[in-house]
Amino acid sequence: MIRVTLWYENVQEEGIASAAMTESASEEERERILRDLKEGSERIRRQYPDGLMGTIAGALRKEKDLEVTCVTQQMPECGLTQELLENTDVLIWWAHVAHEEVPDEIAYRVVRRVQAGMGFIPLHSAHKSRPFMYLLGTTGTLSWREGDFCRVWTVSPSHPIAKGIPESIELSEEEMYGEPFDIPKPDDTVFISWYSGGEVFRSGCTWTRGYGKIFYFQPGHETSPSYHNPYILKIIANAIRWAAPEIVRERFDCPNVPMSPEEKRKNAGRI
Length: 271
Ligand code: ZN
Prior knowledge:
The protein is an alpha/beta fold.
């Protein structure tokens, strides 16, 4: 069994106002922010009655070789205890509006686990998440525009992540993400998306960092129906199997990844 952990920010779907959103707001502004949050939450729930992450989890749980655990940012330690990460083969990450609310301590815990061998699949707006930026060393910035028709082209048909995926997939509505996408040159570009505005985007890219494999996949705006599309779900399942580790290092020393005192002790004397 491949042990998959789905990490979900869950702020918009729950309509949660962060401290940063309301701390300097007047009473009137505060009411408007809370009203907008409620409307946003209702839009997501209309599109995904089982929840955005619940929809992905439901699809993955039908796959016999996957064992799925769901956690959210609202849980203690953002749901990412050391113990859970050590029992995760592949971590999926969906986040949008509260990237900075994942403390560096947790973000680097993820980075170290990927360096040791855990697979990592950041989805959609996770291109600005801390683990993604820290692992790749770039800002992840891109251009974007709200809802548009999107065609996802399979440009590496022989890649394991493209197994069973047609030449192209039509998405009736998806948020436009466009180039330039500030990422290091991918090991493989598996998908490129085209939008009716004429933009193109490297929407499915792979890298390795240490022993870990990373796949970024763009479709999945919270109010677009992409996670109802069977091909999008199949790509995520394929990516999990591709990213599942062959080998995990128990100990390692990586000078650019901050370590806790306990990890420093464990790594003492190792190069
Ligand atoms: Zn989006």
